[in-house]
Design a protein that fits this description.
Elements lengths: L6 E6 L9 H15 L3 E8 L14 E6 L13 H4 L4 H7 L6 E4 L17 E5 L3 H11 L3 H17 L8 E4 L2 H8 L5 E3 L19 E4 L5 H14 L7 E4 L5 H8 L4 E4 L4 H10 L2 E4 L9 H9 L2 E4 L1 H4 L9 E2 L3 H11 L6 H14 L2 H11 L2
Parallel strand pairs: 1-2, 1-4, 2-3, 4-5, 5-6, 6-7, 8-9, 8-11, 9-10, 11-12, 12-13
Helix pairs in contact: 1-14, 4-5, 7-8, 7-12
Length: 374
């Protein structure tokens, strides 16, 4: 991208502020980093439940908002619901106002990717996941029959729709494993690490007195991980476990209420959540999906002390050596009980600093993206 023409359209699947869950965290901090490099951003956001944000005006020349559509029958369409519900003629007209490159955030936003009116534009798609794998995994952990069936149908539609990425000039994959997958299918792919709120290492040495798990508990993947900890790990821990996140299931609430050593925090804002990550002695990070990369892993390493994770959390991230690994309940229990006694040292902080800032520096990665744009 030439200095004289540093203009960029960004199409976001949600309003990216407040930056309080994985996907919008990546978008918001990419916007901030690009703005810091002098890029003039025209932002297009789809709304569904989140308010318009004045904060975005600090980093964008213009912000357009569009209402996401809803359908009574989300099954009735050949297109994925997450794509078909983000279909606004107004968006297409606004993209045509100038000839600047367009960054589509996720497969969600690619309804117009192949549109003939955008044929000669430079188009980038940021992939946040291999979406059909992500939805297939949501199906596995969902108990509600209708949701389970929707996830199955959506996964298959996303698998077919993914071929539309051939109309992108560049696919920017969020993890090394996703980069490997997309590189086999499309000619121009780059690895663009996740953007995040950490400009420096903020881990503190010493000891905390609790174990911490966090995530959007309304997402099946996180609900499953939290229930796994409560049922299989917490009963044999010698220390208190705090679980934090919005929209916990009733089943999870009941499981936590039955164990006095576990606390549930539902209404933390982004800053409060990060303070708990920072002050915990152990951040515990199980997952049962290895799609994309988990921003909670990056935040925990930049902010926290000891991190205990399973293979699916760290696989193909290059961050395995910064975590203590556990792949079954007994291993989680042993690692946590041991690490609760071990102060987190300055040498461990320095090791993380060197590795994380080499791979996950927002400004460096924003510059790498700009270098790819014509």
């Amino acid at each position: 991208m030439q200095d004289s023409n540093r203009n960029l359209h960004i199409v976001a699947f949600d309003v990216p502020f407040p930056a309080n869950y994985g996907g919008v965290i990546d978008i918001f901090y990419r916007i901030k980093a690009l703005h810091a490099l002098g890029v003039r951003i025209t932002l297009h956001c789809y709304k569904y439940g989140r308010e318009e944000s004045l904060e975005l005006n600090k980093y964008c020349e213009t912000v357009h908002y569009y209402n996401r559509k809803t359908f009574k029958n989300p099954i009735y369409s050949k297109l994925p619901y997450i794509v078909n519900s983000r279909n606004s003629v107004e968006l297409l007209e606004n993209l045509k106002i100038n000839v600047s490159p367009i960054l589509f955030e996720g497969l969600h936003c690619c309804y117009y990717l192949a549109h003939p009116d955008l044929k000669n534009r430079f188009k980038i798609v940021r992939t946040h996941n291999i979406e059909h794998d992500y939805y297939a995994n949501l199906e596995k952990v969902e108990n509600n029959f209708f949701k389970k069936y929707f996830f199955r149908v959506e996964s298959e539609r996303l698998r077919k729709f993914e071929s539309r990425l051939k109309h992108a000039n560049l696919v920017a994959a969020i993890s090394p494993s996703d980069y490997k997958y997309f590189s086999k299918k499309f000619p121009k792919v780059m690895y663009l690490p996740a953007f995040h709120p950490n400009e420096e290492m903020r881990s503190v040495n010493g000891k905390g007195d609790f174990v911490f798990y966090h995530g959007n508990l309304g997402v099946g993947e996180n609900d499953e991980a939290a229930k796994y900890l409560v049922k299989n790990v917490a009963p044999n821990l010698k220390y208190p476990l705090i679980i934090a996140g919005a929209n916990p299931s009733n089943e999870l609430r009941k499981l936590i209420e039955a164990n006095k050593s576990i606390s549930l925090l539902e209404n933390l804002n982004s800053q409060e959540m990060l303070e708990y990550v920072k002050n915990a002695q152990v951040n515990v990070l199980p997952t049962f999906q290895n799609t994309g990369i988990k921003l909670k892993l990056i935040n925990s390493l930049f902010l926290g002390r000891h991190c205990v994770a399973n293979k699916l959390m760290t696989q193909n991230t290059g961050l395995e050596n910064l975590c203590h690994m556990a792949n079954n309940p007994l291993q989680f229990q042993k690692q946590i009980n041991s690490l609760m006694k071990q102060p987190f040292g300055l040498d461990q902080i320095e090791k993380r600093k060197q590795q994380l800032l080499q791979q996950f520096d927002n400004k460096t990665n924003a510059a790498k993206l700009l270098a790819q744009i014509i």
